[in-house]
Amino acid sequence: MGAGVDTCEIWNERVIVFRRRMARCLLIKYSMARTASSRTSSITPGASSGRLALPGEPLDENIPDVVIRRLPLYVRTLQALIAKTGSHSVSSDQLANAIGVSGAQIRRDLSYFGRFGKQGKGYDTQFLGEAIAGFLKIDRQWDVALVGFGNLGRAIVHYRGMIPSAFTIAAIFDRKATELQEMAPGIPVMSDDCIQREVARLGIRIGIVAVPANAAQEVADNLVAGGVLAILNYAPVVLRVPPEVTVREIDPISAMQSMTFYLPD
């Protein structure tokens, strides 16, 4: 190398050029793959942002929680349409009729993630389902820790809908673990004293709380301490968790109490 030439600067420039070329190649490859598969749907820049949303990358980071809660219903309905009719495309109105919302609502919900489909042609059913699954991160398997193996816990483990889903019960915790191991073949049943250590060791990010209300907060604390960031809570109590932890409550009694308002006297 000649005098006065900074080899670090030359190397950095080469790296920058290489990365730019790789980015262009990836974009061309992605575009060709979409064209070759003859999809009628595509992801293009949405109205709220000028950039391309790749699968699993929402355009708008401030998506209302109510929108996120509807997305699993969209995926399930699209999968049902494919299984029942083998349909390759569906309009927003057809999808809306199957779900029970308006076509405008579906278009608004999807606009947070990009612009799907083509006017007059609708959405590619399979592609849209796969794209939404990618946004929800249910295109992969998630290990789940279940705490509480009484009647409710056993019902959750044996729920048939769990088998084809993206979730696997990987560990069960109960204060009577030694008495219950035979009731969960293939799944380790451990003492609830081991929650924090074992959840951390197994890298589990999702927990299910199926214990009485008076034990739920302590269980939640142990799950969070072990690295859990999402909790499905069946206990009839409001859990106090850090802001980065997501909690979903399932309380059948409260749900029925809200429905009785609409019943005639």
What's the quick description here?
The chain has helices at 7-36, 65-85, 92-99, 103-111, 125-136, 151-157, 177-180, 195-202, 213-225, 252-259, and strands at residues 89-90, 123-124, 142-147, 167-173, 189-190, 206-209, 230-233, 246-249. With 265 residues, the chain is of the alpha/beta class.
Describe the structure.
- The protein has 265 residues and is an alpha/beta fold.
- Among the domains are: 65-136, Winged helix-like DNA-binding domain superfamily/Winged helix DNA-binding domain (Arc Repressor Mutant, subunit A, Orthogonal Bundle); 142-251, NAD(P)-binding Rossmann-like Domain (Rossmann fold).
- 45% of the residues lie in helices and 12% in strands.
- The protein contains 10 helices and 8 strands.
- Strands 5-4-3-6-7-8 form a 6-stranded parallel β-sheet. A two-stranded antiparallel sheet has the order 1-2.
- α9 links the parallel β6 (206-209) and β7 (230-233).
- α2 (65-85) packs antiparallel against α5 (125-136).
- The longest helix is centred in the N-terminal third of the chain and has 30 residues, at 7-36.
- 24% of the residues are buried.
